[in-house]
Structures
1.
Amino acid sequence: MVIYEGTYSQIQEATRNETLLVGATSTIISEARQGLQPRKNIVIRNISPNVADVITLNLGLSLAVADAGIVLKQNESYSDSSETGYDAFQGVITGICATANGKLAIYER
């Protein structure tokens, strides 16, 4: 529930809490966010069961390429958050895994 100047609203901000499988080909992790619902926060964590399941993220229009971008080993994470004077990245985020068994936990709002 959101409070605005003493009144209550049932409108809630859209959030995303999910797991996503990532294989050995580039996969869209998060679509570009524009317009009325810009991305305020994102946390992406490699929750893969095996140490060899290294996941690489790419921010932008290019496809993810293994070891060329933000490299997340098992249990490592990437996060971005809007703050005063800074907006979180709004573009598409792609990912690729060194094996076919990658798994990400994603929180986004």
2.
Amino acid sequence: MDRDEAKGIIDRIDAACAQAGRVCIMEVCGTHTVSLFRSGIKSLLGESIHLISGPGCPVCVTSQGYIDAACELAVRPDVTVCTYGDMVRVPGQVGSLESQRARGGSVEVVYSPRDALTMAKQHPDRQVVFLAVGFETTTPGTAATVIAARGEGVENFSILSGHKLVIPAMEALLAGGEVPVDGFLCPGHVSVIIGAGAYRPIAERYHKPCVVAGFEPRGMLEAILHIVRQVADGKALVENAYGAVVSSEGNAVARDVVDRVFVPADAVWRAMGTLPDSGLELREGFRAFDAVGRLGVEIGPDVCPDGCLCGEVIQGKATPAECALFGTACTPVEPVGPCMVSSEGTCAAWYKYNRPAQPGVEKA
């Protein structure tokens, strides 16, 4: 998209804002947060568009208790913890997985749960635990791997389930009424699995426009235009600006695999508390692959680090610049909270693309 095309869409957004007034849009996906900064869209939009980040970073919404349980497993002499790379440096109460590895713990970075299963087969003398963290995008891979583990009779492989569901989190934010969201920029990756139609309850029950978008500048700008026009017209519809990839019904095959292995369950979200049916636990026939039951690890309470506003940031209640730790005590080199660790974290995005000249002075 060239400059003239971008200006044309932005002019139409400004025209719609003249009727709608100031519009607050939450980007639910962490990749959207990064893409909006990297493409320069945030700096091009006028003051009538207020973009805020939501609970769309799977690492950021993972509770402190889960991190602590993973760290406790990592130092057991007969256990190897396998994880995606962005979980390694998330601080827990006793350190991170990185620091546990430095103390002699067994922590391996993998690219997929299948890699963890392969490691379990190669090391039958060790219990291999995969940290199953992520939204609907990564859950089918975990489910397929658990099915394969049972089919192949691999008895030393298990998962610590931290999978989350997007829709319950969106509903919880709206039900709380603390964040004045006018519409949602819905996640492209997740929507491939759940389908654009999954957002209809949000649009109908809470009267909030929901527009699915990809991650290129044109797609995101067009999605923002759709949201603003709906607000101006007093509508609340589900629209799909990522039709090349996302369908209304989503990927039924992937969802069937997940439904075969998992069942919705209450889950603890960082700083948001326990949200009903917002997570996934293994069904009865697959409980043998649950690390909690097999290894007796306890997932403790969610404890926020002193002074850290990650919990407020992922709910759109605060910006990173409003956190006293941002850019001073908390940096990508020495993070205090997960929002500064993950590549999809809002604080990491602000630090890289939007760091204020003075702490506490907001740019975007």
